[in-house]
Amino acid sequence: MNKQIVSFVLLLLFSCNLVYGEDPYITYEWKVTYGTLSPLGVPQQVILINGEFPGPKINCTSNNNIVVNVVNELDEPFLITWKGIQQRKNSWQDGTLGTNCPIPPGKNFTYRFQVKDQIGSYYYHPTTALHRAVGGYGPLTIHSRALIPVPFNPPADDFTVLVSDWYTKTHKTLKGLLDTGRSLGRPEGIVINGKSGKGDGKDAPMFTLVKGKTYRFRFCNVGMKDTINVRFQGHTMKLVEMEGSHTVQNMYEMLDIHLGQCLSVLINADQNPKDYYLVATSRFTKESHFATATLRYVNGVGGAAPLEKKEAPEGWEWSLNQFNSFRWNLTASSARPNPQGSYHYGQINITRTIRLVSTDGVVNGKQRYAINGVSHTDPETPIKLAQYYGVADKVFKYGLCKDEYMPPNGNEVITIAPNVVNVTYRNFVEIIFENHENSVQSWQLDGFNFFAVAIAPGRWKPEMRQNYNLLDAVSRSTIQVYPNSWAAIVTTLDNAGVWNLRSNALEKQYLGHQLYLSVNAPNTSLKDEYNMPDNELLCGIIKGLPRPKPYSI
């Protein structure tokens, strides 16, 4: 009898799709609108959240419950994803077009999710159309709980730095270029927190420092095309965190931040009190852009020194060496009190290898990008909803993307279709990214963190595993792949749901460089995955259908 009562209580708690308990709730009310700003000095239309660009900061603590009511006042459907937030058992809140219907103009949708067992530096951004090209993004910071030690002293202040390449065209103009088979072309500049200083001493200070204090700067590359290198004039950086993992605290004069990546550094305000520049420079381009932001010491005298010619070496070998210097701090705690190194990922047997080869080609006169010969397109009915309503066979096919792929020597036949890969719940998988292009790629996996165990030039072969870092690779959710090179990641697929794996390059992502992993538990149960929320937006062929029977324990 007691077991029946306990089961009934648990069922009531789970069926509401909210995470109950002692963890506090943080609620936001967001209004998404258009506005006119001049990030590069030219007035243009941007997307604002509550009148702000970048959008409001979500500032929370591990295990907090986040409630965000998004009101779409644009003239187009709109959707937001929470990049790097794992959404445990809850892909309903991931905010991609494979999991959610977009919010229609004039309507709202309330996201409800828990930042379960995560800390670190993240951000949110739109996933509809090319909205990300003109804003709608903002920072999301998760702090450690008070009882869990952090491997450095509390800083005097905690700053967010969102760096991005930038176009002055509207998002509709940019989308029109891609829809008619043309390219976005080169970005026209770089912005730092929505502004683009020129290093001429005329800009108001963005950050204020007190001599003798230490400050944390959280960087994210929220851009569309370019790797961005960052440095501080006169100050070195101590790397302390990367996408939710504490790192070995190495010192750097400059850091490459690839598309979609976030990291934290500490700097000591130990220089003569005056102004200094934070400098962001595009990488791996024929013509680089730069932007500056001003750091001002309190009671400082004098402006920043003229910018010296100081860039990272050309080519990507230097950047690869920097990647190899990043190490997981094995003795530090992350969101839980146990040390990060207590999880011995290198001792787990790989159960499946998925080798993803990126290619491109022209289909019906228009440029497309493909993974293993499949160029993804979003169906009218989101993949997750099609599964839940039992109509998946009418929306997409599993298995178009094979685990192994050998691109043809001649013209590739590209299939344009929803790209869905069926994977086994709790399997430990190895995913290989092969970049056959001449530009740097960056990839994002929703729903999981993975261990980035290797990057190397050439083509991957099984014997390459002997060079994997199986001890202290950083646990993260993005990975870069250099031109004509490969990267390897390993992860446990322990989060049931439908999860997007995508290029962080907006043009390539929009034109097919993405897929969805369908991670299905053997038995549909609330122990493994939450039910569809009561407020879920419906679209496509499921609109008007009776709601399926909810999961039980």
TrEMBL record:
Alphabetical UniProt keywords: Glycoprotein, Signal
Protein name: L-ascorbate oxidase homolog
Organism classification: Eukaryota, Viridiplantae, Streptophyta, Embryophyta, Tracheophyta
Gene3D superfamilies: Cupredoxins - blue copper proteins
SUPFAM superfamilies: Cupredoxins
Record keyword Glycoprotein present: yes
Keyword Glycoprotein: yes
Start and end residues of each Plastocyanin-like domain: 32-145, 158-298, 383-522
Cleaved signal peptide residues: 1-21
Superkingdom of origin organism: Eukaryota
PANTHER family, per database record: L-ASCORBATE OXIDASE HOMOLOG, MULTI-COPPER OXIDASE
Assigned protein family: Belongs to the multicopper oxidase family.
